Hints:
Order of helices and strands: HHEEEEEHHEEHE
Shape: globular
Helix content: 10-25%
Largest sheet: 8 strands, antiparallel
Structural class: alpha+beta
Low-confidence stretches: 209-220
Amino acid sequence: MPRLSRPFFARPAKIVARDLLGCTLVRILPSGTRLAGMIVETEAYVGVKDAGCHSHKGRRTPKNEAMYKQGGTFYVYFTYGMHFCCNVVCGGDNEPVAVLLRALEPVEGVPVMAKRRGIPAAHPLGKNVCDGPGKLCQAMGIERSDNGADLVSGDSIWIESRMRGMKIPRIVTGPRIGLSTETVWKNRVLRFGIKDHRCLSKPFPTGKTRNKKTTSKSRG
DNA sequence: ATGACGATTTACT
DNA sequence: GTAAATCGTCATA
């Protein structure tokens, strides 16, 4: 499938986060091996106003510098002393918004990915290979040197559009995972996933969330 | 120079 | 469910 081009990324993170579902992240290892996984879960980080975002209040350091580049840039960071997480920068130049890739369904090079993950073989349904932001980076060999890469023009990592004929995925939503900040931003609906997919990192909230007046007694 | 902490994962009770 | 693993980055001094 054709790669996503600049205009796809040069849009608001919330839109890109939804539209990335069903697209394919492609990785060419130094050995030439091609790995690929379908994006099944994302989170939007919407910039300087977003208390959960690395660029909150215009914060700009060597670590998050890639967020300030043009849409289509890859932003990779290291966390908890042992994991990488990867993001797709969105919007325009100097507009620090991004989409975190949280889970993939492994598609090509699955045995290689499983080995990179330290498991003997992939689960038959692809579980436990790329179903988490740290896991997918480990599986696909995404690390420090990929920070700042251009997904539009680079030759080691890019994203391809949904397969022709693919049904528009049913999307489920929820609050983002792992945020410590106790603000409205912690509860904002900025996490997106393909409904009922086997490779989601964590369950999404079930049922209707719009009735706020649920009492403690009525919770079953 | 020092200390706190993190957009996580894993193993263990 | 809880806790450990593990270290680069950034704010403070």
